[in-house]
Each structure stands twice: as C-alpha cells, then as structure tokens.
Amino acid sequence: MVFGQVVIGPPGSGKTTYCNGMSQFLQLIGRKVAVINLDPANDALPYECAVNIEDLIKLSDVMVEHSLGPNGGLVYCMDYLEKNIDWLESKLKPLLKEHYLLFDFPGQVELFFLHDNAKNMIMELIKKLDLRLTAVHLVDAHLCSDPGKYVSALLLSLSTMLHLELPHVNVLSKIDLIESYGKLAFNLDFYTDVQDLSYLQNEISQDPRSAKYRKLTKELCEVIEDYGLVNFTPLDIQDKESVGNLVKLIDKSNGYIFAGIDASAVEFSKIAVGPVDWDYYRYPFSRRLTYKWIPFIELINSLYLLIL
C-alpha cells in the first residue's frame, strides 16, 4: 500500500513550490519522497523529480507538430499519457516499496472538472498499483480579497471534488502574503470555513460592476452551501507548523495514520473521528527545527547534530 498526494490547482497557485517545500518537509520527518512531474509545461523544476513526463512527451513539440496552443497542447499531452499509462506504471513500480509519492499536475483547471483523461489515469494507477492518494487542491489566498473571485474559487473547488472522487483537501496557499492584497472584508475564518455566504452576497452587491449579477451570485452561493463540502486549510509553505498541520490532515484523509497500526475496529474509529492534532509519532523533529527552505544537505546536517 503506497500513499501520496495529487497536487492540483489553477496556474500561479503555487503547485511546484508546494511540491518542493512539501518534499523537503516530508524528508525532514523521515519519509522517502518521490516527486512525479506530470506537467509538460513545467520546464524549470526546483526539485529533483523521480519521474518526468518530458521523457515521454513535451508540450513544445506537441504545439509545433499539431499547431495547438498551450491549452490544447496540455489536453493532448494528458490524452497521450492516458493512452501510454504503461510507461508511467513502469516508472512508478521501482518507487512503490519505500516512497511517498507527490504528483505535480498541470495548472489547466479543465483537466480536473471537465475532461476525464486525468481522472481516468489516476483511477487506473490507484487500481493497478494499490495507491492511497489525496487530491490537494491549491487556491491562491489573494482571491479572498475579491468576493467575486472567491465565489469562483469555491465553485472550482466544489466541481473538482465532485469530478475527481478522491479524498480531497482544499488549501489556501500563500497565506503569508494575504495582507499584501489589502484588508479582507471578513476575518480569515469566514473564508476557510466557508460560513454563511449571504454576507458575501451583500459585499458583492456593493460593487456596481457586480450588482447586476446579484441573483446569479445568490443561486451559486446556495448551491455551494447545499453541498456543504468545501472548506479550506491555510498554508504558508515556509512555516513548519503550517505544513505539519496540513500533512496531518492529508494523512488522515488517505489513511496514512492507520498504516502499521495493529488495533481493533474500535481504536481505528476513535482515530478516524478524532481531531487532527493527535500525538503524532511520525514527527520526531518537527518541533525542534526551523523550516525555512533549508537545502536538503543542511537538513541532514541539522539532523546529525540533533542526534549527537
């Protein structure tokens, strides 16, 4: 049984930065991590990837050969990868014994709420390789500063959750920069917990450009509230406590917390319904080291000094 994350989100939401920071954090707490780059447009990787889609297909070649733009080219690449899923399986099999997997997907949102190729590929991997994956959907925190954009982010998150049918965690990324976007109309809990959206409708109505869409906004907000599925976890990828809290939530969603635990069904149930801030034995060093984009060799040195 192998655990991992499917990292998705709109362009600019910080997926690649997230994969880089998350892989560093997970290695710091003792997990072997393999990052799989499935974004053929990502040609400047800050991390060392175990599998790179560019070894199979390149977006630039697709655009030239088939006279496609970036969006059409990305859809073509995902279709091609789905049809050549055996290639990806062969690359992943050597990693299954010891590694925790991070899948860095493209930022084209249509792939995750409209097209089926990415979903089919993920489901095929889960079935054949016995993977336990959580979809981590990143949304830039600056969208909270604009009520209309925030409603759009809610709709995108809800659509993605319903389409992918995976354990799902929505994340407000770049939360450390949120103050630079201007003062929020409500406190942060309103945006993370997705509370009574009627207050947000009143805020939108005060904008002359959005007032004429008041009825549409009201109906959309009611759809979001009726489902009751969407909430957000704030994330500062450079803060170890913030990353640690997110890892605990992800581990609970995909079942990692149950791995290696020999207990009764009652004990499993207690863990499943309990809070995410349990005494987590997999974090031996998280409270003793400052996590601020430390190069991996410095992490090893720090761990060595702690052992001494």
From TrEMBL:
InterPro entries documented for this protein: Gpn (IPR004130), Gpn2 (IPR030231), P-loop_NTPase (IPR027417)
- Keyword Ubl conjugation present in the record's keywords: the answer is no
Q: Where is the signal peptide?
A: none
Question: Which GO molecular function annotations are given, in alphabetical order?
Answer: GTP binding; GTPase activity
Protein's GO biological process: cell division; chloroplast organization; embryo development ending in seed dormancy; shoot apical meristem development
- Give a single Pfam family match: ATP_bind_1
Q: Which domain of life is it from?
A: Eukaryota
Record key words, sorted: GTP-binding, Hydrolase, Nucleotide-binding
Cellular compartments per GO CC: microtubule
Q: How does it assemble?
A: Binds to RNA polymerase II (RNAPII).
The entry sums up its family as follows: Belongs to the GPN-loop GTPase family.
Give a short account of what the protein does. Answer: Small GTPase required for proper localization of RNA polymerase II and III (RNAPII and RNAPIII). May act at an RNAP assembly step prior to nuclear import.
Protein name per the record: GPN-loop GTPase 2
